[in-house]
Structures are given as structure tokens and as C-alpha cells.
Amino acid sequence: MGSRLFQQTRRNNAPPVSPSLPVKRRPYLKYLLIGAAFFLLYLLGDYMWREMRWRFIVVHHTAADSGNMEYYRTLHKKKHGWPDIAYHFLINNGSMNTSIGQIEVSGLWEKRTLNYSTKISYVNYLGIAVALVGNFENHDVHPLQYEALIQLLANLSLRYSIPPERIVGHGELQNTQCPGKHLDMSKVRADVARAIQRKRAED
After folding, report:
1. Cα within 13 Å of Cα(98), Cβ side
2. pTM for this predicted structure
């Protein structure tokens, strides 16, 4: 009896049990994680678009023996309404205060956007456009210009895994004389392949 009374007294004197507090949910964390995931997907997609889409390199000549990046940028914007020069890279011939073999990079390449060098849209989206200043329907390419071309093509080929057989002249895609009969694209491809082999051996 006394034991039961003691137990009853303990129960009666026990402190009241506080109700459990509700767990505060933080829905913003879920949305923050979702937003971060979408942002990472955007960065991945942007990288793939900028760096992994390239499938061709298309070689052109300007069909004129004078000019530089700024000259052709102004000409193409005024004549065609394009936002920049038609090409990603321009290899100079020494005219207009440039040096022979000097390579200029257009804003199109800096942004990795499409070029305007052909009338084939998928080639413009997936191709890197390289032009040499000069009219090679009328004369040969200067040796320094040609060497700059081969080195640029080899570097692009290695960087973007574009095999030499996918380096083409504009005239191999469309009915045009570009890049001129004095620029032999079969020789260009063979020389690029040899340059790639040398670069790999050096590495």
C-alpha cells in the first residue's frame, strides 16, 4: 500500500511533459538546390556548345590582296548586315599594317558563335572558318602565310578532335572558286596530318 502510494505521489509530482515543437521546414533549401542543379546543367550545356560541337574546319581566301580583320569586319557588317567578319580566324598577308602570317581572331570565335562563311547553315554552326587574305585563284600563298595556316589547323584539329579529312576548302562544299586553285586542299590536309604527328611526338 505504501509503495503504491509513493508511486502515485511520484506520478502526481512529475513535471508536465512539454509537447514536442514542430520541426521548422525550410522549403527554400529545396528550391536553392534545384536552382543550383539547373545552373550547373546550364554551364555544362554552354561548355558543350562552345567547346564540343565543332566538326569541320573550312578554309577560305578573301579573294582580295589587301585587308585585315578590321577592314573585313567593317566590310561584312556594312555589305551583309552581319554582326562581325564572316570568319573565326584571319591569316594576314602583310597588307594594311599587318605582318605576313599574323593570325587575327574575330569576335565570333571569342564568343564561339556561328560563322557566316558559307550558305550551308549546319556547316556555319558546326564548322570553324579560317580565311587567308589574298586571291589564290591568281597567285600562290606566301610561305609564311601557308605555314601559319598549317600550324593553326593542326592546333585546332588537336584541340577539338577534328581529323584532317574534315578540313575542307569552301569550294569542296559549294560551287565556288574559294579558296583558289593555288591552295591545294589535298596538300593542306597532308601537311596538317604531318604537323599533328610532330606535335604528338613532341608531347
Report:
1. 23
2. 0.77
